[in-house]
Amino acid sequence: MSTSGKILALVDLPGGELDETGRGVVSYAARLSGFAESAWSAVTLAEPRGEALAGLGAYGVPAITAIDAGEQLLDTPARLGKALSRLVTAESASILVLPHNDLGATLAPVIAATLNAALLTEVTTIRKKDGALHLSRAALGGRIAETSLWDGQRPLVITVPLRSLSQVLLPSVRPGNPAITTWQAPPEAAGNTVTIITRIPPDPQTVDLTEAEVIFSAGKGCDPATFEQLKELCKILNVSFGVTRPVYDLGWTGFERMVGQTGRTVTPRLYVALGISGSMHHVGGIKDSRRIVSINNDSKAPIFTNSDEGFVADLSEVVPRLLERARASQGGAA
Ligand SMILES: Cc1cc2nc3c(=O)[nH]c(=O)nc-3n(C[C@H](O)[C@H](O)[C@H](O)COP(=O)(O)OP(=O)(O)OC[C@H]3O[C@@H](n4cnc5c(N)ncnc54)[C@H](O)[C@@H]3O)c2cc1C
User: Fold this and answer.
1) In the prediction, which pLDDT does 333 show?
2) At 76, is the secondary structure helix, strand, or coil?
């Protein structure tokens, strides 16, 4: 089977860099193009240069359409969505792949509504069967897998959860030098009333935990001294800080730092659980993290069964050493 048009993958290049999400999206689109037997290319919001461009080439991206002044549209998703819809039409694309992050989850419905396209969010696996694409996603809180069928009659907009975006290079990928075309968003979509002069990245110390990239969380296994050291470590490493409910109950932090079923549900790139047992109430709020690393002095702590990597160690020994190294690496007192 062949979809009638090509596949486009949206790659945001935060700070001009090709990050894990970007690599995951192009890898996903490359795989999809293989079994959909369609051509594919990437769409970027700025012209990729240097390492970002080399990275896209290494992932076998055949061609890149860079939206001129696309970054200017980031704060106005409705206009960016409309611009992307026009690009999908201009490139006769059938499928648009977006990461299911803030940007992708906001843009996908706008684009689908503008194009009258089919929309499926948080698609995990796609299979080809009997001439149609079968797209699966978790439903009912992950208890069932829901499969939808796309017959190619209308364009399809999909978002893919970050945990399903593998950066693994496919053996079939042929690295190359992608051709870059700059695409001018039509004036009504681009507008010219707002000019973004600079973009300030979120501060991990204050960002809402639901949007944090890396979280170190303290559980009841942290004594007061370790807890303070951990907070300092987070500051130095520029990562976000979370806690379990018992720690919140001690009054050591505000409610907005509590992770879990009644606290924040988080989806960071990396979640480090320190002195956390791994109760279902806590794990329910972290299970969609891309990578979970745990440190606990009890080798039988349930958190280990939910972790990608676990270390049996005493926090009162580990945290001071981590802090010492972090201080030394920033040139402070060791
Ligand atoms: C309705 C309901 C909703 C809830 N919602 C939430 C929620 O949103 N978030 C949440 O977190 N909890 C929630 N809870 C509480 C939850 O059930 C657990 O009690 C809680 O998550 C346990 O927190 P903890 O892992 O920090 O503490 P503990 O379960 O006491 O675990 C402490 C861990 O630290 C380890 N440890 C101790 N000393 C050290 C050391 N020196 N070095 C290394 N490891 C050490 C221990 O081995 C242990 O595994 C909820 C409970 C209920 C009933």
Assistant:
1) 45
2) coil
